[in-house]
């Protein structure tokens, strides 16, 4: 008797927290459809990811976590953006070798399809070269992607130069329903760090090329929250928000150990009382800003849960609230004690807050975060923004305290947040737009 070959998909993230997490969630959903998935991480990210798997994780049939060497040997400076950039240069031939090795093993293991982060353009280009069908995943909002697709036109119109630097002080409007960008708010803008800007701009520019290699663009959002931007992206299928499964045995994609003591702490707080503060994986506050936040939170007279990376942890903060190095964020946002989310507005955090109906106090820093803030405050009206103190250049303790109090007493914002939660959850329910799109994608992927 001959066995039927199981369809085999490689899922490839960019090696950063905000990319690995949504792609792992997507990978689990694909396995749910009886498809075999190999999740291919760069070695250094793979190690962190595997180390952070929860104790409850059980290996799933059909899901394999694999890694490709990053070519940096024993050097361990991988946090440095330049090192990550160097790793990426090594990837095309390593990825090709990886696929050739799998394909050479046995007929049953052969790779049928590649799903890769749009920023992991090397994976999509190698798949194209090897004649393997492929889809790109957009882990930012559709508006950020739509802007990226405009790069050639922005250069042609003399608005930016070939390094992404603004040449004119103009605002960019892609549609009446999409908030405008000022030229210092582009996803690649780092006015004070030209090297960083150059790298981010190269990645952004490449996306508009990479998209041409893809049969589909899977976007981590739902159509209903931003139809105008979705309509600007060719071959888009909105399949989000990609959320952690309720299955305890699945991974949420964390690359750091989650401190679950905060959940039992939340269990002991009154309903709707806790201010949750977290700025994702890359934001580092200045010492002065950290102190203002610490004092602002302490003076609130309310319980708070604050994610403070170990390198800047300050013992004194813990007596005013609960401080953890890394939280199971989706569980925190879904907890009935959580009242609001002081957030850097990273796209995953934005979607996780939306999906749980939690109002935001926005604290954007870079890349797409300023534009996400505009969606939160101006389009969806589910949050407030902070104003910088003109003399110190930081958010003052009074501003932080005052805005949290204002947010918590705003019934309109709460109502909007709950309405949006229903819309987003509806898209994920049976026959909702995102779940229909995922089914459609899987059918198309496996056709012929
Ligand atoms: N996250 C988490 N625990 C934390 C803080 C963040 O699990 O204590 C997760 C969060 O749920 C989200 C991701 O880390 O899925 C951060 O992604 P986001 O796009 O918001 O920000 P980035 O880290 O890319 O700046």
TrEMBL record:
Q: Which InterPro entries match?
A: UDP_glucos_trans (IPR002213)
User: According to its UniProt record, which protein family does this protein belong to?
Assistant: Belongs to the UDP-glycosyltransferase family.
Report whether Transferase shows up as a keyword of the record: yes
Q: What is this protein called?
A: UDP-glucuronosyl/UDP-glucosyltransferase
One of its Pfam families is: UDPGT
CDD domains named among the record's database cross-references:
GT1_Gtf-like
Name the UniProt key words of this record, in alphabetical order. Transferase
Which molecular function GO terms apply here? quercetin 3-O-glucosyltransferase activity; quercetin 7-O-glucosyltransferase activity
Per the record's keyword annotation, is Transferase included, yes or no?
Answer: yes
């Amino acid at each position: 008797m001959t066995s039927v070959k199981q369809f085999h998909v490689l899922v490839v993230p960019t090696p950063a927290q905000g990319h690995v997490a949504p792609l792992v969630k997507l990978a689990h959903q694909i396995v749910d459809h009886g498809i075999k998935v190999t999740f291919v991480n760069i070695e250094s990210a793979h190690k962190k990811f595997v180390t952070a798997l929860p104790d409850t994780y059980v290996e799933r049939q059909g899901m394999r976590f694999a890694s490709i060497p990053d070519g940096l040997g024993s050097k361990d400076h991988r946090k440095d953006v330049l090192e990550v950039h160097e790793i990426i240069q090594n990837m095309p031939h390593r990825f090709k070798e990886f696929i050739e090795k799998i394909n050479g093993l046995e007929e049953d293991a052969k790779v049928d399809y590649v799903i890769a982060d749009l920023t992991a353009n090397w994976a999509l280009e190698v798949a194209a070269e090897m004649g393997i069908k492929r889809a790109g995943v957009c882990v930012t909002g559709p508006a950020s992607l739509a802007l990226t697709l405009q790069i050639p036109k922005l250069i042609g119109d003399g608005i930016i130069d070939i390094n992404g630097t603004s040449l004119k002080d103009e605002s960019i409007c892609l549609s009446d329903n999409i908030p405008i960008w000022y030229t210092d708010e582009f996803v690649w803008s780092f006015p004070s760090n030209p090297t960083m800007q150059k790298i981010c701009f190269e990645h952004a520019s490449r996306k508009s090329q990479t998209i041409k290699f893809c049969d589909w663009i899977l976007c981590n959002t739902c159509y209903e929250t931003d139809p105008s931007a979705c309509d600007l992206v060719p071959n888009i299928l909105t399949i989000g928000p990609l959320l952690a499964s309720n299955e305890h045995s699945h991974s949420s994609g964390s690359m750091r150990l989650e401190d679950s003591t905060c959940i039992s702490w939340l269990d002991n707080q009154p309903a709707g009382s806790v201010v949750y503060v977290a700025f994702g994986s890359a934001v580092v506050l200045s010492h002065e800003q950290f102190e203002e936040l610490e004092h602002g939170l302490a003076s609130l007279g309310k319980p708070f849960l604050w994610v403070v990376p170990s390198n800047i942890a300050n013992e004194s903060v813990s007596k005013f609230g609960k401080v953890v190095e890394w939280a199971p964020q989706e569980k925190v946002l879904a907890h009935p004690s959580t009242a609001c989310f002081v957030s850097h507005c990273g796209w995953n955090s934005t979607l996780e807050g939306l999906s749980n109906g939690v109002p935001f106090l926005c604290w954007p820093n870079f890349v797409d975060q300023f534009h996400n803030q505009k969606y939160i405050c101006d389009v969806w009206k589910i949050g407030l923004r902070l104003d910088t103190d003109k003399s110190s250049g930081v958010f003052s303790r009074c501003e932080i305290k005052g805005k949290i109090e204002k947010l918590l007493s705003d019934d309109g914002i709460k109502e909007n947040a709950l309405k949006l939660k229903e819309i987003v959850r509806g898209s994920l329910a049976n026959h909702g737009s995102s779940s229909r799109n995922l089914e459609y994608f899987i059918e198309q992927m496996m056709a012929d």
